[in-house]
Amino acid sequence: MPRSTGCWRSAASNDDLIDCLCGTPRPPSPVIVVDTNIILGVILGKQSRATFEIIQVSRGLVTSARTAAEVLGMLRGLPSVREETTAQVEGLLSSLTVIEADAYTGQLPEAARVLSHAVASRNGSTSDAHVLARAWLLDADIWSHDPDLAGTGWPSRSNANLLRFLDGG
């Protein structure tokens, strides 16, 4: 289940723990759950691909079959999307680790409950429960621009936030 502290290194004493907890924000987790909007941004955006490639070099990126289906469904629904765009998406998705739904299904009810009470969304939406459940399963941060996930108490990262950490500043 969720981490209880923001400290990733072992503390030899209480002073070490305090230094660790009171310093800078903890780094992104080694594995990051990628949300639909990030993948769409990489495919449809002009600057997101470079960001994706930088982050992919230093972190394990995971998604789900549901997220892949959401991305492909949204793209197929856009009239201006060409076949090569769909091929690009399939190539990008094949570079990610896919977590099957049965691995996190047991955590979906609690993830839905947490999302329905998230202050950031204020709409009670639980459509991203699968994203939160995957993050819990893997003890991984979420990479998303969706404000619904920001109110869950679980680390949710943006492009800028991840790049700032990886660039060291």
Automatic annotation (TrEMBL):
Name the UniProt record assigns to this protein: PIN domain-containing protein
Pfam family, any one: PIN_2
Signal sequence coordinates: none
Alphabetized InterPro entries for the sequence: PIN-like_dom_sf (IPR029060), PIN_dom (IPR002716)
Recorded superkingdom: Bacteria
Residue ranges of domain PIN in the record: 33-161
